[in-house]
What we know:
The chain has three domains: 3-152, Rossmann fold (3-Layer(aba) Sandwich); 158-284; 294-371, 2-Layer Sandwich (Alpha-Beta Plaits). 40% of the residues lie in helices and 11% in strands. It contains 14 helices and ten strands. It has helices at 3-15, 46-55, 73-78, 84-93, 117-124, 138-144, 149-152, 158-183, 188-204, 237-255, 260-278, 312-316, 344-348, 366-371; strands at 26-30, 39-43, 61-66, 104-107, 127-130, 299-302, 322-325, 330-333, 354-357, 363-364. Helix 8 (158-183) runs antiparallel to helix 9. The termini are far apart.
Amino acid sequence: xxxxxxxxxxxxxxxxxxxxxxxxxxxxxxxxxxxxxxxxxxxxxxxxxxxxxxxxxxxxxxxxxxxxxxxxxxxxxxxxxxxxxxxxxxxxxxxxxxxxxxxxxxxxxxxxxxxxxxxxxxxxxxxxxxxxxxxxxxxxxxxxxxxxxxxxxxxxxxxxxxxxxxxxxxxxxxxxxxxxxxxxxxxxxxxxxxxxxxxxxxxxxxxxxxxxxxxxxxxxxxxxxxxxxxxxxxxxxxxxxxxxxxxxxxxxxxxxxxxxxxxxxxxxxxxxxxxxxxxxxxxxxxxxxxxxxxxxxxxxxxxxxxxxxxxxxxxxxxxxxxxxxxxxxxxxxxxxxxxxxxxxxxxxxxxxxxxxxxxxxxxxxxxxxxxxxxxxxxxxxxxxxx
Length: 386
């Protein structure tokens, strides 16, 4: 019975989700695939690989595991670790060409920010399509042969939010707990309770926290941009902290354990936890663009004359911002305010009809978005604010 081991491994890898967890790049046979079996690809983050294999249970398929340094698909594609190069490499070295008669490769939709479909097709002869966002939709997608609107859209349901809360609460507890265990053991249990309560509260109320994106001319200077106070989409996180502080002070007053010095100390400690989590809280999901990222200041510009309505933007947009006017063979940005500036549409547009534009009116060439990826601080090779 493998399920107890898999369950423990799932829990461990979720707790340590902020760290890479690589597995061997390889070709996996799911079920008993024949020469017409579908071919899918994912990154070599072990938790993702095992979840995709579980989702394909009952199917006959091949799964390519591309080298992404143990990082999940969304982060590796956005950060330049999952690109056309990795896809081409695993296609050529896995031997899959000798095992199937077709030449159709299904990539995860969230890889569209990093993998240039056209480049893979030109260099390998394989036809590339983008499958659903979530592995759980793969059986329905393979059965229907197409994506529904629900399969294209990113969501952040309660279970995923609780997983991310666990992924943050655990390492913060371990690091902070080790420090307190050295000389302040009496503070250990209250600290752990505070960390877990604040973290789970933030993720529980996450869908209601982000405010509107403010179109500022440039981000705050220097290190101050990394404070939640200057993240307009996450500033409401402080409401969670204020509720915590009011509850803490109210409990101390009602229970007769009032100690001003201790209350101030715990209030500041909880504020530090909120600020730490908020530095990349929006980075927990493709749904929101972190205020730390200068890309949030950009907006998408569509050149209607260049557009041919091939619908690649519609296929890869995680927020369903586009509709296709089939009569005119043109794409239309129907929900511009929903855009999270992921750049997938810019990367995949075959006519280069889409581009990012800065608040100053500077147009960023699609080739720049394809070439230079975001680092952990949300910066490309050159600052877009300059």
